[in-house]
Fold this protein.
Amino acid sequence: MSYTALAILGVAVAIILDLLLARTRLLRRKVFWASYAIIVGFQLLTNGVLTGLSVVRYDGDVIIGSTTPTVGPPPFLGDGRIAYAPVEDLMFGFALVLGTLVGWVWWGRRGVQRTPYPGPPRLLRSRSPVVSVQAEDRENPRLTGLELRVPTPDRPPPDDDASAPSRAGRRPRSRSPRPRPRSRSRAPGPH
């Protein structure tokens, strides 16, 4: 399969992923196109340097244009090239950027690390029966005594409804700590 066919296939897969499968619809947003304009400028600069200096060479049988000449740079514009690089590079780069952003938005909508925290990943507490394993790390005292809670498959989790008082009409409690919003206080002094 030629680079042209792979690049066209990559663009088609990224568009189908965006519009039909993940339904993020990034292609319909102005912010995506504004972001992509910035990205494509740097992509053309990088591709132009690498292809113009013959660091990367292309065979004319697998791209739209001709083979990269052995002496001198390829044409800057024309012969299937933009800024020395073949148009397939732009198509492939578009597919990579769109696919990455679709994945980012899709996972973000599912709450995967919606609020970033500094430091190592935090382990959430579970109400199911657990086996505790104590970690000891002499090189990193912050991790000493960290409790890793692993549910056991042989015992079912306790029935929360039977042991807890009725919470009808109240919002269920969240099991993960939520960061509290910071208050915006003014600096002391004359206003």
